[in-house]
Amino acid sequence: MSISMQGVPRIGSLPAGPLDSIADVAGVTVGHCTLAHDAVQTGVTVIRPHAGDPYCDKVPAAATVLNGFGKSVGLVQVDELGVLETPIALTNTFSVAAVAQAQIRAAIAANPEIGRALPTVNPLVFECNDGYLNDIQRMAVDGSHYRAALAGAGKDVAQGAVGAGRGMSSFDVKGGIGSASRLAQGYTVGALVLANYGTPESLTLAGRLLGPELVPRLAQADPAGQPEKGSIIMIVATDAPLDARQLRRLSLRAGAGLARTGSVFGHGSGDIALAFSTAYTVPHQPDRPMPAIAMLHETRLDPLFRAAADSVEQAILHALWHAETVQGRDGHCRRALLDMMPELAKTA
Catalytic pick from 130, 239, 271, 310? Predict the structure, then answer.
């Protein structure tokens, strides 16, 4: 297992971008709003595909549902039309409706005729269940938290127990937000994950099975063979000129990176990947010209597939490495992986 100077396993041979995050893809920014007070341990994370108005200038996109145990909003229209028209939002399961409404209100504020002279807008919200640490029944997230995350979006991508990742768990340790990037064939591929999945005995890091070492250190580990009940959202961005069909193929490769960490996309797991390209935008108004873009040839996609798999796997590791121990509702606690296994932080 190759180890970086920070102790994080280095996935694959492709180089990373200068930030080693999804923000290495030109135009992409990320913002968080974190709620961390007693039993409320949750938040919102927002990914902006570009600095403009995505309703007016839509971004090509496509998604793959590896296992559909989830409550996301907006995937049907993305599948049909192949574009995004809002930023991408991540939150907890019971906050999807509040965040979707906030997205709609933000779009109307920018385009007051939405739903009147203009078509309606398709909000896009993904979720994972943070109910072990967060008192999810409080429904603490509201529109102000979405707006704060959107306003704070920038190139410096905080990771770990932040934003939507605040209350998430992975492998019975602390999960959360992770991000990474890879450079391939002159293009950048970046990933951001909301990691809330994994049975402890299956934890695998850079090809090394660590689950059997982790399980004895957990105070209250789930019994071996306990079914997978978590979820992960994987967002893949690229500046390569791909159409929606090609982006669906790219999104599917996120599953390869996920599988390497020990996931089998279990019955109770919501595993969803979405890929988008920043190489061009699609105008909302029909009187504006459509982009004239030469798409990448199919035979040149393999390096991007590898970059997607590697960046997703790396992003998951970054989520685990950046996580901090969090105590939430009813005394529930998820310890950080590096608190449980401090030897992993040592350099090679």
Answer: 271
Do 174 and 334 form a contact (C-beta atoms < 8 A)? yes
Render 145-189 in DSSP notation, one character per residue. Answer: HHHHHHHT-BSS---BSSGGGTT-EETTEE-EEEEEEEEETTEEE
CATH topology of domain 22-345: L-amino peptidase D-ALA esterase/amidase (3.60.70)
The predicted model scores a pTM of 0.96
Q: What is the pLDDT of residue 227?
A: 73
pLDDT tens for each residue of 239-248: 999 999 999 9
Rounded average pLDDT over 303-314: 98
Query: Of residues 21, 72, 269, 311, which has the active-site annotation?
Result: 269
Which of 72, 231, 251, 311 is the catalytic position? 231
Q: Is there a catalytic annotation at residue 271? A: yes
- What are the domain boundaries of the chain? 22-345
